[in-house]
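Case study 2.
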Amino acid sequence: MEVFVNNSIAPICKLIVATPRYIILQYNVTLLVNVYLPCRSTVDPEEMFIDCLASIMQDVSELQYAYIVFRGDKNIELTETSTLSAILSNFVQDLGLNFLNDKLPIDGRNTFILQV
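Prediction:
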């Protein structure tokens, strides 16, 4: 996973952790988390989903920070009722985060839509 930052802040950005599923950077008192969660077609997606979020929670719990920006490919529809969306909602609540999808224009909320 690659991350690009402006040259002016690169010297003060600290790489906390980089895994195949997520990366955490710290910029002053802000954590930047970029994640690629497993999709439903993955073998045992629920277990991988939980493991990934638990690992992020563990890494974040060991840090001093004031703000978190959490983004990436969550591979779920947040508006549907499912086990994975409930798990993600609990994770978001545990970290005191808010979904900001409602701030995006309707046609800009999805990067991929499967059409059948």
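The radius of gyration is 15 Å.
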